[in-house]
C-alpha cells in the first residue's frame, strides 16, 4: 500500500501546488493594489502640499493667482504690433525701394520651401522608422524569443514554480547518477570476466604445451630404449 495523506489529492486541500500558486498570485495582486493606492496617496499629499505653499505665497505677497483660461481664447497677435506694418507704410510713402520688398518676399518663400522640404524629409524618416519598428514587432523569431523570455521571467518570479522545477531537476540528476554508476559497474564486471577468460585460456594453452612436451619426451625415451635393445 502506498503511504501519504489522501487529502493531498483533493482539489480543495491548501497544500496542493495549484492552491499554493493561486494564493501566491492573489497575495501578489493585493500587494500591487496596495502599492498603487500608496502611490496615489503620496501624489495627493504632494498636490495638497503644493496648494498650501501657493496659498501661503499669495498671503505673503498679497497678489492673487489667476486660474482663468482667458489666454486660450485670445487672438494670436492680440495686443502686439504687426512686424511688417511699419515697413509696408514706408514702402507706400516711397521711403524704401520696392525691389527690396520683392527680394525679401523671395527670400521668405525660399525659407518656407526649405522648411517644407525639411518637414517632408522628417516625415519620410519617421515613416521609415515606423516601418522598421513594425517589421521588428512582426518578426516571428523575435516574437518567439520574447515569449520565451516572458515565460522564463514568470517562472523565475514564481517561487513555488521555481521550487518545483528545482526538485524535478534534482530527481533527474539523481537518476542519471544511478544509471552512470550502474553502467560503470556493468562495464567493470564485463572487463573482469573478459580478463579472467583470457587468463583461463592462456593457462589451458600452457597446460596443453606441457602435456605435448611430456609426450614427446616419453616417445623419445622409448625410441632410445628400443635402439639400445636392437644393438644388443
TrEMBL record:
Organism: Apophysomyces ossiformis
Compositional bias per record (Basic residues), positions renumbered to this chain: 184-193
Gene Ontology terms: biological process: mRNA splicing, via spliceosome
Biased composition (Basic and acidic residues): 19-40, 197-207, 217-232
Primary location group: nucleus
Pfam families: Cir_N (PF10197), CWC25 (PF12542)
Annotated protein name in UniProt: RNA-splicing factor
Sorted UniProt keywords: Coiled coil, mRNA processing, mRNA splicing, Nucleus, Spliceosome
Domain CBF1-interacting co-repressor CIR N-terminal: 11-47
Sequence similarity: Belongs to the CWC25 family.
Location relative to the cell: Nucleus
Keyword Coiled coil: yes
Region annotation Disordered: where it falls in the sequence: 1-40, 108-130, 152-232
Gene Ontology CC terms, in alphabetical order: U2-type spliceosomal complex
Amino acid at each position: 500500500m502506498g503511504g501519504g495523506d489522501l487529502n493531498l489529492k483533493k482539489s480543495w486541500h491548501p497544500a496542493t501546488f495549484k492552491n499554493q500558486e493561486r494564493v501566491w498570485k492573489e497575495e501578489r495582486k493585493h500587494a500591487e493594489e496596495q502599492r498603487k493606492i500608496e502611490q496615489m496617496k503620496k501624489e495627493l499629499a504632494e498636490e495638497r502640499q503644493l496648494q498650501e505653499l501657493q496659498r501661503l505665497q499669495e498671503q505673503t505677497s498679497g497678489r492673487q493667482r489667476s486660474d482663468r483660461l482667458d489666454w486660450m481664447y485670445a487672438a494670436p497677435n492680440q495686443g502686439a504690433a504687426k512686424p511688417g506694418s511699419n515697413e509696408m507704410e514706408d514702402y507706400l510713402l516711397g521711403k524704401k525701394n520696392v525691389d527690396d520688398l520683392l527680394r525679401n518676399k523671395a527670400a521668405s518663400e525660399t525659407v518656407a520651401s526649405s522648411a517644407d522640404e525639411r518637414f517632408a524629409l522628417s516625415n519620410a524618416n519617421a515613416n521609415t522608422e515606423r516601418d522598421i519598428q513594425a517589421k521588428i514587432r512582426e518578426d516571428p523569431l523575435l516574437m518567439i524569443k520574447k515569449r520565451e523570455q516572458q515565460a522564463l521571467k514568470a517562472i523565475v518570479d514564481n517561487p513555488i514554480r521555481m521550487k518545483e522545477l528545482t526538485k524535478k531537476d534534482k530527481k533527474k540528476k539523481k537518476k542519471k547518477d544511478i544509471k552512470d554508476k550502474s553502467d560503470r559497474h556493468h562495464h567493470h564486471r564485463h572487463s573482469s570476466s573478459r580478463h579472467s577468460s583470457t587468463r583461463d585460456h592462456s593457462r589451458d594453452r600452457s597446460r596443453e604445451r606441457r602435456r605435448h612436451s611430456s609426450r614427446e619426451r616419453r616417445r623419445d625415451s622409448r625410441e632410445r630404449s628400443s635402439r639400445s635393445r636392437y644393438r644388443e
